[in-house]
Structures are given as C-alpha cells and as structure tokens.
Amino acid sequence: MDPIAFKIGGFAIYWYGILVASGFLAGLWTASRRCVLDKLDGKVISDLGVWIIIAAMLGARALHVISYWEEQYAGQPLWYVLDFRAGGLVFYGGFIGAVLAVILYTRLHGKQPLWKIADAFAPSIPLGHGLGRLGCLMYGCCFGIECDLPWAVQFPAHSLAFDALGQAPGDAAHSLHVHPTQIYSALLNVAMYGGLAWLYRRKRFDGQVFAVYLVGYSMCRFVVEFFRGDYSAEEMWFGWMKPGQQLSLFLLPIGIAVIVHLRRRSVGGGV
Predict the structure, then answer these.
(1) Residue 113: partners with Cβ closer than 8 Å, 6 or more residues away
(2) How many CA atoms lie within 13 A of 63 on its CB side?
(3) What's the predicted TM-score (pTM) here?
C-alpha cells in the first residue's frame, strides 16, 4: 500500500488526506439531508459545517501533538507541527473540538436547537469516521497486534508497523501479519451509521440519537483497542488499558447520563 495517492510537482497528496476529506464531505452532506426531517434551516447546517471542519481538524491535530510532543514534535519547525496531510490526527480530539464548535455556534446564533442539531449530525459522525479509518489503513497508522488469521494484513518495509513490530520471517519487504484494526473500526462505524440513521426517524426525544452514538462508539472503540498494536507500555493503564479505552471509560457514562437526563426531561415536559 502506497500512502501517496499522487504528486503535483514535488507536492505529495496522501490517501489519508483524501479519505479524511471525503469523510467530512459525506458526513456534512448526509447531515444536511437529514436536517429536513427536523425542520432545521439548511443554511445553519452548511454554516456550521465550516465551524465543525476547522474545529475538528484543530482538535484532532492538537491532541496528537500533545500526546507525541517528545517523540515527534519537540524542536520541529511550526510547519511540521501543522502539516497533517499524511496523518497525525486523533479522533477524540477532533470530536471534542467539533462538539465545542456546535455548542458555541448554537449560542452565538440565536440559541439554535442544540439537541436537534446534534441528532442531525450524529449518524454522520461514524460515516465520516469510517472513511477516515480507511485513510489510516492506507497510511499504516493505528495498526493491530500480530496474528495469524486468514484476514491478517502486512505493511511494507519502513512503515509504522514494520518499524514497530519488525519484518515477517524471511520477508524483509513486509511487516509481520497483524490484525486489520482499521478495517474493524471502519466496519463498526458504518454499522453504527446505519443503526443511528434508522433510529433518527424513530427517536422519542431530542438528543437521543447523539447520546446513543456516545454509548455505541465508546463500546466499539473499547473492543477494537484490544487488537491495536501501536501503543507503548508507558501509554497503558494497569499494563493493558490503552488510551482509546481510557477515554471510552469517560465517554460511556456521559452518554448514559445524557440519555437518562433528556428522557426524563422529555417525559416531564421540560425545555
């Protein structure tokens, strides 16, 4: 797998960037179509889309730079820190950035219906994320632990997996066989998209779809992380709990609390 899709002169265009951009576009387009069902202003969705893209990219990059400052970014020029064409984005950072952007936008523009907007975007998040994970596959990041399953994948020499895990026995051109964790994540995200899109048309209160996404994603991420092989021992809690699982433990109770709170409020007739 070549992470570079093509070059314009000496400027490389990476598959990672193409697929992440495709994820954003697919997510915004499906959200704009969905907003009609809740009678939301289409202009609000298109305007908010710009806020979300900027905030998500900044948040995703910021968390990655913070997490790997000593290993990758200390002493590097500013352009290197800001260059994420070839990877270096953390989903949870982007998610936090996007959530903050939506909250700020709805407060600055006449108190738009926050939970209706969150529901309109919720199914689109895993759709875009699934495409982004295919970008991870092409770049070679977020790789899995070694395995001998029929669907195991290998990465080329000098890829992240090759450098971290070593070469396959008798094959200096490829890494060891590993779990295709990027594909696991992409398939689970697409399944969540289908489930949330179905729920959106049947939701019982505003905010339900977004809260269910929080619960569903945290559970899926927790499971997939068991098969990830790109973390160091220093990043784990108790010698086994990986960073994505740590954040999932915080996200899961938040999602459950939001469901309980909004359901009670809808039953009680609260605003």
Answers:
(1) 38, 40, 106, 206
(2) 17
(3) 0.87
Packing angle between helix 124-139 and helix 208-225, nearest 10 degrees? 20
Cα–Cα distance, 125 to 216 (Å, whole number): 12
Q: Count of residues for the chain?
A: 271
Instruction: Count CB atoms within 10 A of the CB of residue 157.
Output: 12
For the chain, give every domain's residue range.
4-139+181-263
Each residue of 152-175: pLDDT tens digit? 999 988 888 888 888 888 788 889
- Pairing, β 171-175 against β 167-168: antiparallel
**pLDDT greater than 50 at residue 253:** yes
Burial level of 12, CB count in 10 A (0-12/13-18/19+)? middle
In this structure, is the dihedral angle defined by the CA atoms of residues 256, 223, 67 and 127, taken in order, positive or negative? negative
pLDDT digits (tens, 9 = 90+) for 28-76: 899 988 887 777 877 777 888 888 889 988 888 888 888 777 777 777 7
